[in-house]
Write a structure and sequence with these properties.
By secondary structure, the protein is of the alpha+beta class. It has a single domain, classed as Sufe protein. Chain: A, CATH 3.90.1010.10. The protein is 44% helix and 19% strand. The protein is built from 5 helices and 4 strands; from the N terminus they run αβββααααβ. It has helices at 3-18, 66-79, 84-98, 111-114, 123-144, and strands at 31-37, 42-51, 54-63, 153-155. The protein has a 4-stranded mixed β-sheet, covered by helices on one side. It binds zinc ion (ZN).
Length: 160
C-alpha cells in the first residue's frame, strides 16, 4: 500500500468519524441490536426499520474510538434502502475483508468501506471495525427468528 493511498483511507475514516451518518433516532424499529468491543471500550446500539424486505432506515449510535464510529457510519450509509439479502451479503463481505480474505467483494458504490482494509495493519483495531457489522448480522438473525427478546448484548470477544 502506498502512503498516498494510506492518506486517502485515513481521510475517509476521519470524515465518517467527524460527521457520522445514521445518527437520527428512528420512530419505530423492527431490528434492535447492541454490541460491545471490550478490548477497546466501543459500544454500539443499532436499530433499523425494515419494511417488507427493504431496510428503509437505520440508526447507529456508536460510542467509541474513531475506527468503530467510522465503521458504524459507513454501515448506516451502505445498508439504507437495500434488501435484507443484500445487507447480509455486504456485512459478510466486510467481515471477510477485515479477516484478510482477499476475494471478498463489495458493490462498487461502497468504496468508502474499502478504506477499512487499512485497519488490518493494526490487528487490535480490527475488532473496532468489526463491531458494527457483527452487531448488524446479529440483528438480522434476530429479525429472521422473529425473536422478541432483544436484551442480549453480543461481544466481539465471544466470536473468533
Ligand atoms: Zn475501538
Amino acid at each position: 500500500m502506498t502512503s498516498s493511498l494510506d492518506d486517502m483511507y485515513r481521510e475517509v475514516i476521519l470524515d465518517h468519524y467527524r460527521s457520522p451518518r445514521g445518527r437520527k433516532p428512528l420512530d419505530k424499529a423492527n431490528i434492535l441490536s447492541d454490541g460491545i468491543n471490550p478490548s477497546c471500550g466501543d459500544e454500539i446500539t443499532l436499530s433499523a426499520q425494515v419494511n417488507g424486505d427493504i431496510v428503509e432506515d437505520i440508526h447507529v449510535d456508536c460510542k467509541g474510538c474513531a475506527i468503530s464510529v467510522a465503521s458504524g457510519s459507513m454501515l448506516a450509509e451502505a445498508v439504507k434502502g437495500r434488501s435484507l439479502d443484500e445487507v447480509r451479503q455486504i456485512a459478510q463481505a466486510v467481515r471477510k475483508i477485515l479477516k484478510g480474505e482477499e476475494d471478498a467483494k463489495l458493490p462498487e458504490e461502497l468504496e468508502d468501506i474499502e478504506s477499512l482494509r487499512g485497519v488490518r495493519q493494526f490487528p487490535v483495531r480490527v475488532k473496532c471495525a468489526l463491531l458494527a457489522w457483527v452487531t448488524l448480522l446479529e440483528g438480522l438473525d434476530k429479525l429472521e427468528k422473529s425473536q422478541t427478546d432483544n436484551s442480549d448484548t453480543i461481544s466481539t470477544e465471544e466470536k473468533d
